[in-house]
Design goal:
Blueprint: H1 2-22, H2 25-35, H3 38-51, H4 67-81, H5 83-91, H6 97-112, H7 117-132, E1 135-136, E2 139-140, H8 150-169, H9 182-212, H10 216-232, H11 234-248, H12 254-278, H13 289-295, H14 304-311, H15 316-330, H16 335-340, H17 347-369, H18 386-392, H19 397-427
Antiparallel strand pairs: 1-2
Helix pairs in contact: 2-6, 2-12, 3-5, 6-7, 6-8, 7-8, 7-9, 8-9, 10-11, 11-12, 11-17, 12-13, 14-15, 14-19, 17-19, 18-19
């Protein structure tokens, strides 16, 4: 009863706070807005795969190679000779993810405010392009339209809508007769907010360029680098993931709250790896999207091992829930377990629920660091079976074996705690 009272007190404190954060419109706009870019990222990644077949030509020997290796070698020669042509779709999809995200975030936030979402999205897109495309030696530099500009896209996407909303709240608009077509009214009343946004952001850009010799995105990235380093460090990442899982224990979708932080970080770091690969450099960014996928492999709390244990449980109810949860769990969806078992408010399973993702992430970090598995350089689609994600993120078969090993680790960690819970349930005659 004492523990129950403590849980109730913690629930009373944390639930309203977490619910407020989860429903905060700006965080929702970032999460939803980033989703706009996922189809472009996935398709762009396919072309990056075509341009970079998984073969090390330094170790290739045509005299001893089999048919498959000869095919990969021929593919590699073709991709090297036609690299710019093959990667053009990648550069204009993944390479524009900052631009796409600026539109998506502004569109989503405008929707929350019941404003003209499409027009706000277009204003944010135009402003972002103006700020992030400096002219260098007579050529437009596209460097900040991709993953390098994601944080700037978030800032501009949110602030552009807030400025447009200010005009709406203050009712600063041109009154026209009812006979004027609605599209003409929208056009005319968009002119002033558009002009003000351009003057503000492009003016700031010019000011930064004049005083620091840096464009606005460069300066913003310098300011954000310390915070990014904290979230992008192993300790910071583990802390963020653990806090999200603590919220799950109280029945609150912690993944949705930490998503804007870790997903943005993961995409950025994965984009850096892709750029290094495209430039024939060694990939160095360990805190890539692959780490985020591992943090939710099998769902929050890495519960896939628990689901497998449940499928062979002596308790019929556990077996049923386990069988129903295995397919969603393989695709990293585990609400049936969290709420059906449940894990929510479960003091026994809370410990492995928090510990397992930490162990998995530590193992993944060092496996990438020491080159035992491939680093992620491709943005793989969400809710894909975990073993497919493991391969698609890195094009390395070792990652499949490694993630299967993590499932076994999950089973080992959950096993004693699950058996305690199972024994208690059996002792109740259920």
């Amino acid at each position: 009863m004492k523990n129950s009272g403590m849980v109730e007190k913690l629930n009373g404190i944390l639930s309203p706070l977490a619910a407020k954060l989860g429903n905060q419109r700006h965080l929702k706009a970032i999460s939803n807005g980033m989703m706009f870019g996922l189809p472009f990222i996935v398709i762009g990644s396919f072309f990056l795969i075509v341009a970079n077949p998984s073969i090390n030509m330094e170790q290739y020997n045509p005299e001893t190679a089999n048919f498959f290796m000869k095919f990969l070698a021929a593919w590699k020669e073709f991709s090297v000779a036609n690299y710019d042509v093959i990667t053009a779709p990648y550069n204009l999809t993944m390479g524009l993810i900052g631009l796409i995200s600026a539109f998506g975030i502004a569109y989503s936030l405008a929707n929350e405010y019941k404003l003209n979402a499409a027009m706000n999205g277009m204003i944010a897109t135009v402003v972002y392009a103006m700020v992030c495309t400096p002219v260098v030696e007579g050529k437009i530099d596209l460097n900040y339209l991709g993953t390098n500009g994601l944080f700037v896209a978030i800032i501009i996407g949110l602030l552009v809508v807030e400025i447009c909303r200010w005009f709406e709240v203050k009712k600063i608009k041109i009154m026209l007769p009812e006979s004027v077509p609605p599209m003409v009214v929208v056009f005319i009343n968009t002119l002033i907010p558009l002009l003000v946004n351009i003057v503000i952001f492009y003016g700031i850009n010019i000011l930064f360029l004049a005083t620091t010799k840096q464009i606005f995105p460069e300066a913003i990235m310098q300011v954000l680098t310390p915070a990014t380093d904290i979230a992008g460090s192993l300790g910071g990442f583990l802390l963020i993931v653990t806090l999200g899982n603590i919220l799950w224990l109280f029945g609150i979708n912690g993944s949705s709250i930490i998503f804007p932080i870790v997903f943005t970080l993961g995409i950025t770091q994965t984009g850096f790896n892709a750029e290094q690969l495209a430039n024939d450099e060694t990939m160095t960014h360990v805190m890539n999207l692959q780490m985020f996928r591992i943090s939710v492999m099998g769902g929050a709390g890495a519960t896939l091992g628990l689901v497998i244990l449940m499928m062979t449980s002596k308790v019929r109810e556990y077996r049923t829930i386990g069988k129903l949860s295995i397919i969603p769990g393989i695709c990293s969806i585990n609400e049936p377990v969290i709420f059906g078992l449940p894990i929510v408010f479960n003091p026994i399973l809370a410990i492995p629920f928090l510990v397992t993702p930490v162990v998995n992430l530590l193992l993944t970090y060092f496996a990438q660091k020491f080159g035992w598995i491939g680093l992620g350089f491709i943005i793989d689609p969400s809710f894909t079976p975990f073993f497919a994600q493991a391969y698609l993120s890195s094009m390395d078969w070792r990652n499949i074996i490694f993630t299967l090993g993590l499932v076994i680790v999950s089973m080992i960690i959950y096993y004693p705690f699950f058996k305690v819970m199972e024994k208690n349930r059996l002792s109740q005659g259920k």
